[in-house]
Amino acid sequence: MNVEKLFAESPEFETKRLKLRRLTLDDLDDYYAFASDPRVSQQSLWNCHETAEDSVQYIQRALDNYEQKRVYLWAFVLKETGSLIGRGGIFHLNEFMQSAELGYAIASTHWGKGLASEAMQPIVNYCFQELDCNRLEGKCNAGNMGSARVMEKLGMSYEGLLRKQLKIKCVFTDQKVYARIRDDL
Length: 185
Hints:
Order of helices and strands: HEEHHHEEEHEHEE
Low-confidence stretches: none
Radius of gyration: 16 Å
Largest sheet: 8 strands, mixed
Helix content: 25-40%
Strand content: 25-35%
Distance between the termini: 16 Å
């Protein structure tokens, strides 16, 4: 996996309805608007952003991760309005194993419209075609049917259940594991 290429290129993508680009501090207002919705963070390890400062800190961590070449996040910007409606990217980058994990979050007002899978598809393609990935995986809470559907639309296969794997909002939660490997292309 060519992690250096990812951070050197800072790839941007365009889909039918979205532009994908690096997250920046200019995204603060839109980021806070979706991250402060408790429905968005309900199934996640991160907590609902209660103040704009929470979003500033998150975006600053994302910028630090760009610099440290640890996590790459794209802002999902709706072409029609120019508004950020979510974010997604890759983390747990493992050059030796040529693998990474996918993650994403999208504003609840845009759930059920196919935007998360539309946003993540060019990222998946880039990982396999340009970064020489062998394996991409993703996880979601066992009850999060929307996130499971996104991964299925991305061509990922269900691999199993990690029982009580994460403690989310003080509750141990089962995680479904999905993956796509180069041989699946």
